[in-house]
């Protein structure tokens, strides 16, 4: 017997509010008593971030959903641009935690402004942003991205990634250093001493058997390399910065396309 059908809808809604988005989504398949409650805006609003209305007001283009459930899954499946296209925003489908990607144009890229012989800004068919950064040739590679912890989900462990592609003929990207730091807590020198070794070129490093972090295919046509991790407690830690750098071995580097830096729950 389906005992949940005997419960008042308000009681069922309260039960669902203590579950996960995934559990709420499949509840109607478990019991018809959950069916109407699982579609309730009251339930799905609890799974949305507390500041979702503020985020919606920052959309770069109009975007309308007929229900809170539709809004939730749309944000999970289709990142939206906010703040004039400077950021993309989405939700982790399992937890409802906030994900952000900073557009390449908003990153601090050494020699990336008004130096088209080093970096050029181009359109790309696969990017979610208007343009991406294309590294033509540098000896000093230094890319930074910063976000305020108050924007992120609280009590959440985040991983920060550089999202990129390599073009044919790329060079000098086998080894670099990366770190993540709270700007107000750790100096650049201290962070550099703790930096991890990463590679943007997986196959060459595998052959060398070095102890480095390797890139992964995202499944959307782009690659990503982990730059570091941090725990966002109450969102009161100010800015957090991620950095990819290769400033010690001053050989030529080129063939890198940067879409942005992503801050994603672990």
From TrEMBL:
Looking up InterPro entries in the UniProt record yields:
F-box-like_dom_sf, F-box_dom, PP2-like
| Gene3D superfamilies registered for this protein in UniProt | 1.20.1280.50
Give the Pfam families listed for this entry.
Answer: F-box (PF00646), PP2 (PF14299)
Q: Where is the F-box domain?
A: 7-47
For this protein, the record's CDD domains field holds: F-box_AtSKIP3-like
Protein name per its UniProtKB record: F-box domain-containing protein
State the organism of origin. Answer: Datura stramonium
